[in-house]
Amino acid sequence: MLTGKQKRFLRAKANQLKPIFQVGKVGVNDNMVEQISEALEKRELIKISILQNCMEEKDIVASELVEGSDAELVQIIGNNIVLYKESRENKHIQLP
Question: Domain CRM, which positions (predicted)?
Fold first, then answer.
């Protein structure tokens, strides 16, 4: 579980990130969750964009992604979700 200070730190880091995944009409599927897990292992912090044609609510999409990838939800802002998961092998981010 992330503290408020850690979330603030990660939000500041995520500010300049571009979304690397998009959730569209189909919503969240197993393949997407697997790819997001792999990306989190490499990058630790990623931004995911929810497209206008997505049928599910963004809160539901975020909870499915967090549950499937075993990551921490940093923030939902607009149509973007920021996820963090500490990497086992590629540690880049030192949390305060």
Answer: 1-96
